[in-house]
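Let's do one together. I've listed all components of the complex below, 1259 residues spread over two lines.
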Amino acid sequence: MSLWVDKYRPLNFKKLSYHLEQAQQLKNMVEQGDFPHLLIYGPPGAGKKTRIMCILKELYGNGVDKLRMESMLFETPSKRKFEIMTISSNYHIEVNPSDVGIYDRIVVMNLVKSTAQTHQIDPSGQREFKVVLLTSVDQLTKDAQHALRRTMEKYVGTCRLILCTNSISRVLPAIKSRCLAIRVPAPKIDDIKSILHYVAKRESLNLPDELATRVAEMSGRNLRRAVLMLEACRVEQYPFTAEQKVTEPDWQVYIRGIATLLVTEQSPQKLLEVRTRFYELLTHGIPTDLIFKGLLQEVTKNCDLQLKIQIANVAADYEHRMHQGTKIIFHLEAFAARFMAIYKKFMDASLEAFV
Amino acid sequence: MNSEFPDIDDEFDLLHEDEYEVLRELEADETQRTCTNNDFAQKQQEKPNGISQRNVNAEETAVESSIENHNKELQALFTIENKQSQLSLPVETTRKRPIDQISQNLAIESCDNMNFEEFAQEKKRPCWDQPEELMKLILDKRKIIYNNGLKDDRKASVSVKTQTNSISRKVPLTDFVAVTRSEDGERFYIKVSERSSYKPQNYRTTSNLLSKPIQQLKDEAEEISLRNLEKKNLAPLEHVNNENVSTDLWVDKYRPKRYIDLLSDENVNRSLLYWLKLWDKIVFDRDPTVRSRKPQMQSKFKNKFKKKVEDVPDHDSNGFPTQKIALLTGPPGLGKTTLAHVAARHAGYNIVEINASDDRGPEAFRVALLSSTQMKALIDKEKRPNCLILDEIDGAPTASIELLLKFIYGKLSPKGRQPQATSQKENNGCRRPVICICNDLYTPSLRSLRNIALVINVPEVTSSTLAARLYEIAYKEGLNIDLRILMQLAEKSGCDIRACLGILQYSGGAPNILQNIAFGLKDTRKGLFDAWKEIFQIPIDRKGALSGSERTRKILKILQQSEPDRLVQGIFHNYPLNCKNNIVVIYKSLEWFQFYDEVNTFIANRQSWMLTPYTSSAFVAWHLHLAGFHSSKITFPTIPFEVNQKIERNEAILSIMKKTSKIDKLTLVSEVLPYLPDLLSPRLRSVNAQLYSEKEKHELGRLVNLMIDFGLTYTQEKKAEGGYDYYLDPNIWNIGAFPDCKARKPLPYAVKQIVIQELENTRLQNIMVKCDEIVENTCKSTSTTFQSKNNSILKAKAVDAKGDKNIPNHLKQLNPVELKAADQSKCRNFFLSFQLAGQQKLKEKQAKEKEQGIANDEIASNSNSEDKLNIKKRNDLFKSDVWFQYNEGYSNAVRRTVLMEDLL
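Okay, and this is what the predicted structure of the assembly comes out as:
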C-alpha cells in the first residue's frame, strides 16, 4: 500500500471526508442489521469502492481486511473451461464478471449460487448473509443481467449483492428496481483540495494552495487521479512550486494530439496518420468510450456552438454504431473523417463569408 | 546404283544376270517415277507384262534346288541394306531409293525371315529426324502402288493357276510342297513333278532363285511397308478421334527427356543445374569448378559460372553448398517438375520424388527423407546417388517442413536409434541435394524454408516459344494447325504448357480448336491483390470508362471469387493512398465500413446468414466512391495483425498487474498506469546507495515498495547494439506511456542496479517476516506438548541470543560443543518430533495390543532390537578409549555475530 491513493484511503465511515450525510445514512442502514441489494453508481474516482468497503467493515468488522486472491474455474455447457480472479474474505467475495467476456453469465449464475447456498452455521455472532460484490455491472452482457435478476430474489436470505458501476444506463431496469440505488457523486473541487492538503500534511509536504487547486481542476473531479497527480508531482519536483507542471495521463495528451491533427488538415493522408494514432490508443487498452469522449471534448474546443451540437450528435451516433459492431477502428476513423468533412465545410463557408 | 553393289561376288553377278536386268529396269522405272509422277500409273500398268514373263520362270522353278541360292541372295541383300542405312543420305532423290530398296528387301525377306521386319523398323528409326514431306510423298505413292499391286497379285495368281495349275490353294493329289504366304497367312500348294521332265527348264531358270517372281515380291514388300507406315499414320488419328482409347498423353509423350529439350528459360535451367553441380564435391567427391566431364552444351556457359563462383562463395567450409535446398516456384504448367527431373538426371542423380499424393505427415516424411538421402539403390546398375525432389511442397503440413529444415541442418537423427556421438559429428546435415517445388511461394508454412533456400522463380514461357513447340508437336502428330492459332492458344492459357497440350490433344486438332478452347483452361481465379486493384481502379474499355451498372456487375463478380473479410481489410488499409482527395466521399465510404461491420456483427450474433448479400453493396459503394483512373499502389494489410498481437500482449500484462495490485483493469489503464512511469522514475543519483542522503533513501524505499506492490522487477536483457540494460517486467511502459507525449528520463543503469539490489533485499525481508508468521502459526496449531517443547527451544534460543548480546563481541569465546549422547532435544528437525510421536504411539499401540492379548511379537521385537542396536553403537563410540575430536575451521581469532538482518 505504498501509493498514496491506497495509503490514505479511509477505511471506515468515520474517516470519510465528503458526502458526510450520505455516509451517515449508509451507516444507519447497516446498523439496522439488514438492507436490500445495493446498486452503487457514480463516476470513476468518486469513492464508490471506498464506501462499499466501509459498509463491509461496518457489517463484519476487521475480518474483511484479510483479503485473498483466488482463481475460480468455471466450465461452459460446451465444455470450455475458463478462470476468473476473485478477491474474497471470509465474509464477502468480489468479482468482475466482465473479465471473461461473453461467459459472464455462467460466472454470475454459479458464483452467486455457490456463495448463497452455504448458510452460516452460527448466525448468532455473525450476520446471516454474505456479500457478493460485482464490479463493472454496466459491462455485463444482457444474458448475464437476466440471469442475475432471478438469483437476486431467490437467494436474498443468505446473500446480499452489491453492484458497483460507473453508469446505470446500461443496467437493466429489472435489476435497477430490485436494488437500492445509491449514487456517489464526484467530489467537489474543494473536497479534493482539502483531501490533497490532508495527504500533503500527512506526508509532511508543503503544498501551495494554487497547486492543489490546479491539480484538483485537472483531475476532472476524480479523486483517485488527483492524488496520483499529486504524487507524480512530488516525484517530479519537490519542494512544490505554484506553477509546477502537472502531469496528465499520456492518453489524454495523445487524444489531444489527434484532435489537433484533425483540425489542421483535412486529407486522406492526415486520416492515415490519425489511424495509426487510433491503433496506438487501442493497443494501449484505452476503453473506446473514453477515446470517443476525449476526442469530442478536444475537438469541440475549436468550434462554435452550432458546430458543437452537430458534432456531438454525430459522435453519439457513431459511438452507438461502434457498440453495435466489432471492428472499432472503422468507427473511430469514420468519426474522424466525418468531423473533417463537417469542419472543412464550415471553414470553407466561413472563408467565403469573409471574402 | 551399281556403285552401291560393290561387294557382290562376280559369280553371283553372272548367275543372276537377268535378274539384274530386271532390277535395272526397275530402277529406271523408279527414277522415272520420281521425275515424272504423272505417268507413274501408266508405268505401273505396263508392269504386269514383265511379271507374266517372270511367272513363267517361277512355275518352272524347282523348289528344292533354289533354297540355297535364295538364302545367299538374301544375305547379300542384307549387307547392302545395312550399308545403305548406315549411310545417311541427305539428298532427297538418293534417299528415296534406299527406302524403296529396303522395302523390297523387306518384302523378299519376309517370306522366310520374320525377324527382319523388326530389324528394318529399328533401322528406320533415325529417319524421324529427316524431313517429313518426303515420307508423306512416299506414303501417297505407296497407297497407289498398294492398290495396283493387289490387282497384279491377283492376276498373277490367276494366270499361274490357269496356265500350269502347278500352284493351287487346295491340297493337290500329287506330290507337293506347302508354302505359306507370310503377309496374309494364305497357304499355297506347289505340285512337285518329276525332275527329269523339267530338266531343260531347270537349266534355264538357274538364274531365277526366287520362289516368286521379283515383281511380285516387290509388290508384296511394298504392300507390307505400306501397311506398317499406314499403321503409324493412323495411330495419332485414332487418338484424336477416340479419346477413351488413347493411353499416352501428349504431355507425357513430349515431355522433354534431355536437358537440351527443356522449354523453360535458359537462365532458370542453368541456375538449377549449377546448384546441382555444387553438390558434386559432396556427392561425387570431385571438384565442381572443373567440369571436364561435362557435356558439350554446358561448356558454353562455363565461363559465366566461373565468374559467379568468384563473386559469391558457393560453398561453406565443409564443402556444402551455402544454400542446401533449392526451391522452384512458379505458376502451374510451366514445367517445374520436368525441369527438376531433367536437371537432376543430367547431373547424374537417381531421382526420388515425393509429391502430394504421398503421405506427407511428419513421420512418413522423416522416413522418406532418411531413406532417400542416406541410402543408395543397390539394384540400380549405374549406382547413381539419389536426389530428392519434393513436389508440391506448399501443400505439406508445417510440421513436415520443420522436419525438413531440421534435417537439412543435420539435427535430425533416425528415430529409435541412439544418436552416436561420433556419427553426429560427422553428420553435418543433408548430404544429397533436395529440390522443392511449389506453386505459391508465400504459403505460411514455407516461410522458414523460403529464407534458407535457393529460390528459383520459374518465369512464364514466352508465347512464341510455346507456340513453336506446340507446332512441332502438332506436326509430329499429323495435325495441321496454323501457327497463329497456336499462338492464340498459348496466350489464352497463360502460357501453361500442360494445359495447351491437353487442349491440343483432345480438341482433335480440327479448326474447331478455338471454339473449344475455353473448356480446358484452368480456373482463372484472381488473387487478393488483383481484386483490390480492381476495386480501386475504374475499368477502362476501348470506348472509355465503363458504365456504372457494368462496374457494379464486375465488382460483384470479384466478390464471388474471394473472401470478403480480407478484401475489406485490404480496402480499408489501402484507401487513403488510392482515393481522391475529397473528404466527403471518404466519410461516406467510411460509413459503409461501419455498415459492413454492423451487419457482420449482427449476422455473427444471430446467425442470420440471409443478411450476408447486403454486405456486398458496401463493396460496390466503395468502388464507386473510391475508384480512380490512376494505377493503384497496394500493400498487404499487416497492421491489424500487429495491432492484435500488441493488444494480446498488453492484455496479458494487465491481467498480471491485476492479480498483484487488485485494481481492476479499467482503472489500471485509465488512471493508475499512466502515472506509474512517473512514479517509478524518481531522481536518484547514480552513486553508491550508501552515499544516498536520507531523502534519497526514503525515495528509494518508496520506489521499491511500489514495485513490490505492483509485482514489478527489472530484468537484465542484452541490447541489440551490445551492452546490457534493465527492463521493467512486466513492462508497463507499453501501456502507460505513449510515443511523443512526454519525455521521461528513464533511470540510469547504475540506479537500476541499486534498485534491484534493494528490491531483492526487501523481498527477502518480507519473506522472512512471512516465514516467521507461518512458523508461529504452525507452532500454535501443533499439539500442546510439542508446542511447549518448541517454545522452550525458542526461549532457549532467545536467552542465548540475549546472553551473546550482553557480552561484547571481542570478549566472546567459543567453547567446543560437547557431544551429548542424547542430542535429540536440540535437534531442530521438525519432522523428527512427529517420528518420535509416531514411535511413541506405536509403542502405546503395541502395549494396548499386548493388553488385549493380540500381541504382535514380531514387530515389537523388531523395533525393540533396532533401538537396542542403535544405543549400543552409540555407546561403543563414546566409551571407547581412543577419542579424537577434529576441530575443522575452528578459530577464536576474529568473530562477530552476523544475523540475516545485517546482511540485508
